[in-house]
Amino acid sequence: MDAHRTIDAVWKSESARIIAGLTRMVRDVGLAEELAQDALVAALEQWPVSGVPDNPAAWLTTTARRRAVDHIRRSQRLTRKQEELAQDLERQQEPEQDDVLRLMLVSCHPVLSTDARAALTLRLLGGLTVEEIARAFLVTGAEITQRVAAAKRTLAEAAVPFELPEGPQLAGRLASVLEVVYLIFNEGYSATSGDDLMRPGLCLEALRLGRLLAELAPREAEVHGLVALMEIQASRSAARTGPAGEPVPLHEQNRGRWDPLLIRRGFTAMLRAREAGGTPGVYVLQAAIAVCHAQARTAEETDWARIASLYEALARLLPTPVVQLNRAVALGMAYGPQAGLDVADALLADPALRDYHLLPGVRGDLLARLGRSEEARRELLRAAELTGNAAERDFLRRRAGTFADAGPSGPTLGEASRAFLGRPDLDAATVHAYGQTLRRLCRALGEEQPLASLTAGRVAEVFATAWGGAAARTWNRHRSAVRSFGAWASLDGIGAELERRPESRSRPGPLSAARLDALWEGPGVPLRERTLWRLLHESGAGVTAVLSLNVEDLDLEDRRGRAGDRWVDWRSGTARLLPVLLAGRTRGPVFLSDRRPGPARTPPREDLCPETGRRRLSYARAEYLFKKATRPLDPAGIGFTLHRLKAQPVPLRQE
Description:
By secondary structure, this protein is an all-alpha fold. The chain is built from 28 helices and six strands. It has helices at about 1-25, 30-50, 55-75, 80-90, 95-105, 115-125, 130-135, 140-155, 170-190, 200-215, 220-235, 260-275, 280-295, 305-315, 320-335, 335-345, 360-370, 375-385, 390-400, 415-420, 430-445, 455-465, 470-490, 515-520, 525-540, 545, 570-580, 620-630, and strands at about 195, 390, 555, 560-565, 565-570, 655. The strands form two sheets. Strands 3-4-5-6 form a four-stranded antiparallel sheet, covered by helices on one side. A two-stranded parallel ribbon has the order 1-2.
């Protein structure tokens, strides 16, 4: 057990340097990790028997380098390089310090998706196992394995060089690394889902990576700024939750529980950022805001005017809705709640914050300070409905419950929506269509919104935010649903400001060859989506028919599958992907959803996979994922529908 603990500790601290050194030798990140893993396996086999060597890190490095030399010799490549590598091995040369920085830049290369960058960074530089990464992000180990494998494949296909860029190029690439490190930290500091508010393991990994990066790039102010920001934010960890794990707002925290060592480290990193010089960037400005909070001995002594001015400077560099929302908080504290509410209200129409729970949360706080209790209660309840974190949801509901005198007068939007959809004269398809519209209204306005206060103007604002860029047919469908609901609820005027849009009779044609090539070669596309899209394109079959396919009805050898009383045919592209997707499954739907259904949402037996417990992928989910993936290819920025994957239709074979 002692040997295993030693191996685990050495691997976590040294794996990044070992893999980086190997990557410099073999010029392939995936191969380098395999060689390093071989050395790890050798340690697991030998150390418990022979004992832990005096210098465990050097033992792992030497063993891994020997594996690399053997690989190069076996593949009969780089004959002249063999002598140099053998000489390096004899001299026990340590990996170059720049190798780890190179590995960071490769792992966080912009050619990869954000999720893939985070997973690969934690795998290669954090030394975490697939299971540890999966637990941290609340996904399956298989999903992380797919992300890491796809990332390595993308790096190899793109021939990303294992080199250090120079000048402005290095600063641009470092920005991608900083983004990934801060993403990892934020997911640990404020978990987006799950039962706990924080995931300390991710915070520690991000801090370790940030400190390592500061050593490797000591003259980069933004690197030190990010480290300062994370150190100071991490110093509040113990004070951020109460006895039951509930969130404690910053101004209510016991500052005596803030970690003084982490605060001092943050101040030191901030001094290094200032010594590096240059115009303050986004991380230096955020660190300066954190310093203002840390310098105040009490919440009342916080220099909110200074923080508001820093947020104004940050908004000029990073004009995102989230920065503006934080600025609204600062303005509300510095100059009164109305000043903050004016900025927050202007963000209601921003589609980027449509389902962001902190917007109604901030508005609820500001409205409460203005004495508008009923509105504050509704906003806090809406924030609770939008958050995916259980601890935060309970906290927001408790806060809403403190407004004892507030409460809706008359029926609410949520109550009326449920009654409308529960009518016996509506068939299932109509309930589904109307439900989409009314759920969006409830999410945007809150289920506690009094029905009597629902106005045409407010409904029009929701439509502009949710479906402003949608196709005319989609807009008109939701418009029709609102008008039907309004007529039923005796609110005939709520759709008055929604003009019907003219619909084109001709459907857009298939995607061009150039767009299809960009789609097939796009980085980070999951195997399920890649297979589905290929099958739709090659078969010419309808989406419903393809999604209805079952594993037991496939004839992989003949490249066809039974869909009802007909057959769907495919070509070589699908034939290569399908066996990998099925992974040995013999029964159930071919295309499965990401997660298992909850107890209250058990699907029909024919839509449930008996081997995995997951349900059949729905048409709506498949359409959403395709639109999301094709937004960058669409000049309108909306994304394409699945029917545009069809090439020349291939007739379905009749039995």
